[in-house]
Structures are given as C-alpha cells and as structure tokens.
C-alpha cells in the first residue's frame, strides 16, 4: 500500500478545495455548506485520493477515489477525524451515511440510531448512547411524577382496594390509559407564542413533555433558552422539561450533501427526525405530538405534513395548533429577535412572557443582545 500525506484542507486553498469538490462529486456528494474542518490524503504529486470533514460533533463528506478503494484509506480518514474530534473535546460523535455504506461504518464501531430506507442512516460512536438517553428521560419523568404526587395516608381497606385497582402498576409511570403529549421547541427565545402552544397542549393531556433543542446553533444560547422555557412553564403542573441532547436533528446538523434536491432533503429530514422521536415516544408512552401551525415557511409546512403522515402510520396523533396572534399578526421568535436587535423593549414586552422580558432587561443578557445586534440576519431558525 502506498503512503499518503494527511493534510488539512483550508477553505482558502483553492486547488485542494477544487480537488475535494471533484472527488465528492464522483461519489454523488455535494460539499456541505456546514463544515468546520476538512482533511485530505494526498499522493506524492499532491493529488487528492481521499477526503473527510467535520461539523461540530458530526463526521461528513467522506469519500475515497475509485482508483484507490480497497487500500484502507477510509479507515485512515475516519481515524484522523475521530482523533481530531477527541482533541477538541467531542467524544460523542455522529455521522450520516447512505444505507448501502452503513455496514462499513458499523465495522468501524458506529452504531445505528435510526434510518430512512433508501435515503440515510443516522449513527453514533457510543453503543448505548441513545439507550442511555432514553433511560435518562424515563428517570427524569419518574422523579417529576413522584414529586407531583402528595403522600396520602390510606386505611388498610383503601390501600387493598387501590392495590387491586392498579394491578400492581407503579404510580410513578404513565399508564396506557393516560394521554401523554410532547412538544419540541427551539425557543429562540421563548415567546408568548411558545407559551400558548404549551398551554394548549398541556390542557389536552395528562402529562406533557417539552423538549428544548440542545444544539447551540441559535443566537440565544441553549442554557438561556432552557431556563426561560422552564421558568415560563413552571406554573403548569403537568409539564416536564427535557433537553433533546444530540438526538433531535436540526437543519444545521442534518446532511443535505448526498440528497439530490431540497424537497428530498426536507422529507428525509422529517422522516429521520420522526424515527428518532418514535423511539422516544415509545419509552415515555407518548400518544400525541403538538406543533405550531406554520403559515410562513414552506419548509416547515412540508415538514409538518410528513410528520403528520408518519405519526399517524405509527398510531400517534399529530396536533397542529394555530399560532397565537396579536395586532401585528402571528407571534414569532424571528419578530422578537428583530425587536431585541432594534432595542424596542416596549414592543418586546407585549410578545414575551415575564421571564423572557426580565432576562432581556437584565445585565446578564447584554452579551446575547450584542450578539443579536451584530448578526446580519436574525430571521433564521
């Protein structure tokens, strides 16, 4: 086997980038817009024979020249990328691959989380990673329900009757007769629109799980979003808040580079997201998912359509809640970010819960406000 030089491919190295694009194109891959580290294996004449990249804690855009397949070059690429990820503190790694190459990555100790047949497989490098996450959700739920249940002193007869009625069921675990819902939100930041969605959902179920997207790809940091959602829902006694961890897939982390058109990307993203959600729903006995109506975004509209179809096929209900509106129309986080950018706190106060307003008028919010004001575009996800 020939020796090859491993080199980082800088975005400014036009020759190497052109070679990377050409190699990826041969493999039916378009270079992802979201890459923060790329490498190549080069021969003595500086010709690219293999490449791979990272974005956050994912591996992506990996290919080997057809003339050099069978030389173990992909193993070298993966090993280098894993070592690099470990060096920057990312030990939980994820990748997306075509269905026909998933087995190869299984041999490199990546484990399947979910797949969309014929399109994409979502994998991670921890054998029990997703199972551990599900167990964590169950433990959080049991602790929440135990805290919500006030101790009651029963007579011996009452205690026997209660035991017989429950057939030994654990009162801390939702039963099949309960209606359990889920809401997943980015809350960038938490608005009266988000609060309305949670209120409507909570009024329709016995227990509502609210998942806050953990990925820090938003102008408002996850730690702030998580706290605002928790504070903003604290008065709703049947609402429990969770983190999504790395398993709820955002637009930034979902791969579009080996799917041929935008419609396929949206639908594949939705289907893969729902496959992950269905495993969460099974672990928590979730019967209903609630989403806000999306009158503006075609992408979200397609996503919601696919979601409704997939959930229905799995026996779950998808509830689309009309957006809360005021005199200006539907309340959106994008509009709220615009108000923060413009410093219009009088208008802001009318569109967000008290906890959100208090945060953005505090000294702690100054770095976030400056980040929003410095952003060229605040009307994104």
Describe the structure.
The chain is α/β, with parallel strands linked by helices. It folds into 2 domains: 1-91, Gcn5-related N-acetyltransferase (GNAT) (Aminopeptidase), CATH 3.40.630; 176-374, Rossmann fold (3-Layer(aba) Sandwich). The protein contains 13 helices and 14 strands. The strands form 3 sheets. The protein has a 7-stranded mixed sheet, with helices on both faces. Strands 10-9-8-11-12 form a 5-stranded parallel sheet, with helices on both faces. A hairpin with a 2-residue loop joins strand 3 and strand 4. Helix 4 packs across helix 8. Residues 152-172 have low confidence and may be disordered.
Quick overview of this protein structure:
The chain has helices at 14-26, 73-87, 102-107, 129-148, 156-166, 192-202, 222-232, 262-284, 298-313, 333-342, 345-348, 354-360, 366-374, and strands at 5-8, 37-42, 48-55, 58-64, 94-97, 111-116, 120-124, 180-185, 207-212, 239-243, 288-292, 317-321, 325-326, 329-330. The protein is α/β, with parallel strands linked by helices.
